[in-house]
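ok, trying the design again with the full structure, not the truncated one.
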């Protein structure tokens, strides 16, 4: 199986060309017949012209008769059900469904099936057995090695994140950091497969702030790498200071919020829910 995440349906032809070319190069054979449902993305004039130009025979199902394309429809259900299980089993938010679907296809291509007499699709297609030693639990807590010019001698050598699958074309893992909302690609990752990320932590803090509007919640979103996310309160100052010792890593607070510092110390949280931009991130 091949998978591409589409931002809009008009991208179907672009990715179809990409998958067609890759499959023909890997197999040494040409695509002759293409069967789809009657979705608008497959019935466009551009799609029809491309198939005619390359001699591809088009087959479509009868309207409202998906059973005529039963193999694909059943496979789609298997992928969606597996992706839902990956999300629900470890409490990953539904907005990461694209990453779960990518991982589901990756695993199914490397799983034995009855239709291939116990062999994996990967083995039948490439002629060799797949390597599965690198497989890890989707959604578990992962610690990716911190690299780059901004890492000093006393900085943390890894930051916790959420494992979201495998990067295609690279021997690396995809680790999402919910604190700074960045996706890290790294091969140097330590996994805690029995530990899940607490996605409800920030939501609970925001809910408490709504119950009492006079309080101001301060998160450590903008702290630099290597800063310990556990602030201490200086009662004689208006600053919320990091206990990493960096004088320049403090966050200013107004004088009207000084009486709320004790509350802030108790409700300072690390977890930050990611923004809803997964599809654009995956499409790149």
């Amino acid at each position: 199986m091949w998978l591409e995440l589409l931002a809009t349906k008009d991208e179907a032809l672009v990715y179809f060309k990409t998958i067609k070319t890759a499959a023909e190069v890997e197999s040494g054979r040409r695509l002759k017949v293409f069967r789809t449902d009657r979705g608008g993305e497959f019935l466009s004039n551009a799609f029809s012209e491309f198939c005619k130009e390359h001699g591809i025979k088009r087959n479509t199902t009868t309207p409202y008769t998906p059973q005529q394309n039963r193999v694909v429809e059943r496979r789609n259900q298997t992928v969606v059900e597996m992706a839902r299980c990956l999300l629900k089993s470890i409490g990953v938010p539904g907005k990461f469904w694209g990453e779960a679907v990518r991982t589901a296809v990756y695993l199914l291509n490397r799983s034995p099936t009855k239709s291939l007499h116990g062999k994996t699709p990967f083995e039948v297609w490439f002629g060799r057995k797949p390597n599965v030693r690198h497989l890890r639990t989707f959604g578990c807590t992962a610690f990716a090695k911190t690299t780059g010019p901004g890492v000093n001698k006393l900085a943390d050598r890894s930051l916790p994140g959420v494992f979201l699958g495998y990067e295609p074309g690279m021997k690396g893992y995809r680790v999402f950091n919910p604190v700074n909302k960045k996706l890290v690609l790294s091969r140097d990752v330590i996994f805690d497969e029995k530990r899940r990320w607490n996605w409800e932590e920030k939501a609970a803090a925001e809910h408490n702030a709504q119950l009492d509007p006079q309080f101001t919640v301060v998160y450590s979103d903008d702290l630099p790498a290597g800063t310990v996310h556990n602030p201490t309160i200086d009662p004689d100052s208006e600053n919320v200071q990091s206990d990493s010792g960096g004088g320049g890593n403090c966050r200013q607070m107004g004088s009207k919020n000084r009486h709320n510092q004790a509350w802030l110390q108790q409700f300072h949280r690390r977890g930050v829910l990611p923004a809803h931009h997964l599809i654009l991130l995956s499409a790149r």
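Keeping the full-length input from now on. The longest strand covers residues 158-166.
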